[in-house]
Amino acid sequence: METINHYEYQHKEEHGDSALNVTAGVESQPVVNPYFKRVKRRQLSTDDYVKGILEGNISILSQAITLVESNNRDHYAQAQEIIERCLPYAGRSMRVGITGVPGAGKSTFIEAVGGMVTDLGHKLAVLAIDPSSERSGGSILGDKTRMETICNNPKVFIRPSPSAGSLGGVARKTRESVVLCEAAGFDVIFIETVGVGQSETAVHSMVDIFMLLQISGAGDELQGIKRGIMEMADVVAITKADGDNRHRAELARAQIFNALKLFPPTESEWTPQVLTCSSVSGKGIGDVWNMVEDFIKHTKSNGFFQANRNRQSKYWMYESINEALKSSFYGDEQIASLLPGFEEDVLADRVSSFVAAKRLLDTYLVSSNPALFAYGCLT
Description:
Layout: H1 6-15, H2 46-54, H3 58-69, H4 73-86, E1 94-100, H5 106-119, E2 124-130, H6 143-146, E3 156-162, H7 167-183, E4 188-192, H8 199-204, E5 209-214, H9 229-232, E6 235-238, H10 246-260, E7 273-276, H11 285-301, H12 304-331, H13 333-347, H14 353-368, H15 370-374
Parallel strand pairs: 1-4, 1-5, 2-3, 2-4, 5-6, 6-7
Helix pairs in contact: 2-3, 2-4, 3-4, 3-7, 13-14
């Protein structure tokens, strides 16, 4: 009698005789190479980080920025010590904020300007804030892919960072990354924003000059004024001014230039300029960079440059306090245990949102400092 395995027997019972030859197959092979051995990277000390950054070691600089962006409390403490030790070597760069609507050609523009900047003897660091998905929390972080030319330039450092749904935290960490890049010897810092949210306001508070990239032929060129972003711009560049689009770019330049006259004088006593350029042909790119240098010279001569940096430092001190308080509040174990119950009460209309917030804050303040309750500061 012919011997068949269990699977063949079951198949014949269900489907009868068939011309198909069913085999049991082979066992699944391990996905991971059994001979692979993971080599654990040596943990760098604070001295190693500081020494590597000051020597311009890009690998260590990248690891230090990762440490800054980490939410681990141990990493936070070490990152703050690294930043404090690098601070005396920072502050000697030109910080340029670049924003524009998606499709304005920010990455192509940075690639064109970046190549010219390094040819002039500068070292360039590009810090790009990449939007994170509200659903998955992930980011593409594809700026290096779009900047094929300068990403291989030894004088250029490109670092995309996810917004991670928290603008304040990322903006603060971006500012700390600027300090590390400056300590590593980069004298020109580009901070590229998403261009679709409130990140422009945060970036404007950490740069020396703010540049807005616009495109022509995309509707009313004066529409940007409604968003308030035009008021922050020191230089406006109309991109893609080449070929058949050159005439429309010049028309957009004239419209925006006339519109800027409606704004009150700037505190820097600088009249915002509007230029046209083409990142592909390179036409006008040199004029845009010359305008950036003119702005820096102008603000340094009238004292606005240093006054603006001092104001920014004070602003970020308060922002850091707000961020630390927020993190401490939500990290409190007692608050974490009470939050679900208060959420249910608010949703069931048993208590208002404002009363729930006040009770949670009172609980947090009492638990963190009982003396406040003893002196009647809380009711």
